[in-house]
Specification:
There is one protein chain. By secondary structure, this protein is an alpha/beta fold. It contains 15 helices and 16 strands. It has helices at residues 92-99, 104-109, 114-123, 126-142, 158-174, 197-215, 232-243, 261-267, 281-287, 298-304, 311-316, 337-348, 352-359, 361-366, 395-398; strands at residues 4-13, 33-42, 45-51, 65-68, 73-76, 78-83, 145-151, 178-186, 220-225, 248-253, 272-275, 293-296, 322-323, 384-387, 405-410, 413-414. Strand 2 and strand 3 form a beta hairpin. Helix 4 (126-142) crosses helix 5 (158-174), helix 5 (158-174) packs parallel to helix 6 and helix 6 packs parallel to helix 7. The protein is globular.
């Protein structure tokens, strides 16, 4: 693999000399940067960087590729720590139901929503799911994403959950993206188990988890712990069982109401708890110094016209915050992390520095990959974005309809 030099960088953003897993509270408003900078990549890794005043082209090998980034910013590629982008079909018909006033819960109660995708998943082929998902991955790469977590959860049967996870495994092998897989068998309660929910939890614990673990198909486990879905008791049972297989939790929590999902996630040392529209003092107290990353999904709250998580209150209390897309066919049909950054500023009043921290360093932590991605640091993987010529970091959330990324570099190679 040839060397790569990026020179004349207007600003090299999110640099660090010593690893910090994440940033929290008021530190989220700080964003280290080097202006008029250069960066060297070797063997797919960040080797060196500094001010152009220290740059000497003569010191590099003849086969070094040089990119002139005059007027452009260079940042770590976005890490998207929450998606459901393996799915069989869009749910645009339900979009009309939402326009007519039906709530997320009402659509789910009549067999729509997640159960709609689950029905289609039964007959979808692995090859078609793979091809469709690869197309979506190519799309998010163009918008600057360099790492993505993908959940199962549209199967809700042993066979279909395994099908989804096998597709994710194929995506890991075929895509240059860094990909993590999450088993989400407890995404919804199938209609045939309504009124006997504990039996479905038994199925997840006794059949799905052992099969997933046997094939090594998941990095993490997730549960939709919320009103109308899985209870704290259900979640506790599933996470205790998953721990026997070494699966770290990542929890859907408090999207629809105060559900106890945040507290049970923290109790089980979840890597992240996600959604968090309903987060009060008790939840903030539980999260403080817990090591669990609060992850906000602006696309879902926006698309469903829901209350927005109290992000500023959380940061003022000293918490870290990550932002992710929740890319899925029903409640957030976009994996555009630049749009998520804009929503972070417009809807949640986050500063540009805060949203950049939330989609790089903190989401890398929420994916368990903060030691290899999320910042510009020697020895980290060279997953980078080079912007188009733009005025500064403020332009990233400001120009919400424009793709500001000119080049995405994954594993040290320009891929678009």
């Amino acid at each position: 693999m040839n060397n790569l030099i990026i020179k004349n960088i207007k600003s090299l953003i999110q640099t660090e000399d010593q690893h910090r897993p994440f940033v929290a509270g008021s530190d989220m408003a700080s964003l280290p940067a080097i202006h008029d900078a250069w960066l060297e990549v070797k063997g797919g890794m960040i080797k060196e960087y500094g001010s152009m005043s220290t740059f000497s082209a003569q010191s590099f090998a003849d086969n070094t590729e040089i990119i002139d980034a005059t007027g452009r910013l260079v940042l770590p590629a976005w890490c998207d720590s929450h998606t459901h982008l393996v799915y069989p079909k869009s749910r645009d018909v339900e979009y009309v139901d939402k326009i007519k006033g039906l709530s997320y819960e009402e659509i789910a109660a009549r067999g729509g929503g997640i159960l709609n995708s689950a029905r289609l998943m039964q007959t979808a082929s692995e090859d078609q799911l793979f091809e469709d998902a690869m197309s979506r991955l190519q799309e998010i790469i163009r918008w600057g994403t360099g790492a993505v977590e993908i959940k199962s959860g549209y199967g809700l049967t042993l066979e279909s959950e395994l099908k989804m996870l096998r597709v994710i495994k194929r995506l890991k092998e075929a895509s240059p993206l860094t990909i993590k897989s999450t088993f989400l068998g407890a995404h919804s309660i199938p209609l045939e188990y309504r009124g006997k929910q504990e039996q479905y939890v038994d199925l997840v614990i006794n059949e799905m988890l052992p099969a997933v673990a046997k094939e090594g198909l998941a990095d993490y486990v997730d549960v939709f712990c919320d009103v109308g879905f899985f209870t704290v008791e259900d979640t506790d049972r599933i996470l205790n069982a998953a721990a026997k297989y070494g699966l770290t939790p990542k929890i859907h929590a408090n999207e629809l109401d105060y559900s106890g999902g945040i507290q049970v996630g923290v109790q089980h040392k979840a890597l992240s708890v996600d959604h968090l529209e309903f987060t009060g003092e008790d939840e903030i107290k539980a999260l403080k110094d817990s090591g669990t990353m609060p992850t906000i999904l602006p696309g879902a709250a926006f698309f469903l016209n829901m209350a927005y998580a109290p992000t500023r209150k959380m940061m003022d209390a000293g918490l870290p915050v990550a932002l992710a897309s929740d890319y899925n066919p029903g409640s957030s049909p976009s994996g555009n992390m630049q749009l998520i950054m804009s929503m972070g500023s417009i809807l949640y009043r986050m500063l540009p520095e805060e949203v950049i921290n939330a989609v790089t360093k903190n989401t890398a932590y929420a994916m368990g990959i903060d030691k290899e991605l999320g910042s510009i640091m020697k020895g980290k993987k060279a997953n980078l974005v080079i912007t188009k010529p733009i005025p500064g970091i403020e332009y990233l959330p400001y120009a919400y309809g424009e793709n500001k990324v000119e080049t995405t570099i994954l594993n040290g190679v320009a891929v678009n």
